[in-house]
Write a structure and sequence with these properties.
The protein is mainly α. It is built from five helices and no strands.
Length: 129
């Protein structure tokens, strides 16, 4: 059997995904949508998830370093936590409502902040080694 599909790896993804999904849900509930209708909680979750996936990728970048933990944190936790599908749906909703400028702003800020947060996570990970 492929080690990437081993039971420990699959359980790591499932466990991390469960934790990430619950964390995303709780943050979304706590940060109720602002009255402006701008999906700030999704934006913040995506940026934070981008930072942490960069950090975890850097902390566990050596092939012999805790691969099950790396998969649990990157694929599982960050994959369950980030909300790109929600981001896409919210963007389409804004476009359907004729809020083209707001949708464009949301896409630009999400992409730029997400990429910068991933880079920052990589740098913090490098500095902590």
């Amino acid at each position: 059997m492929n080690s990437a599909l081993s039971m420990p790896m699959l359980l790591a993804v499932a466990g991390g995904g469960a934790i990430g999904s619950v964390a995303r849900y709780v943050i979304g509930v706590v940060m109720l949508r602002s009255s402006s209708g701008f999906p700030l909680s999704t934006l913040l979750i995506n940026v934070a998830g981008s930072f942490f996936i960069g950090l975890f990728a850097r902390l566990f970048d050596a092939p012999d370093q805790h691969q099950v933990l790396r998969v649990a944190l990157t694929v599982g936790l960050c994959g369950g936590f980030t909300t790109f599908s929600a981001f896409s749906a919210e963007t389409v909703t804004m476009l359907q409502q004729g809020k083209v400028g707001r949708a464009a702003l949301y896409v630009m800020v999400s992409l730029v902040a997400g990429v910068l947060a991933t880079f920052a996570g990589l740098m913090v990970g490098r500095a902590s080694r």
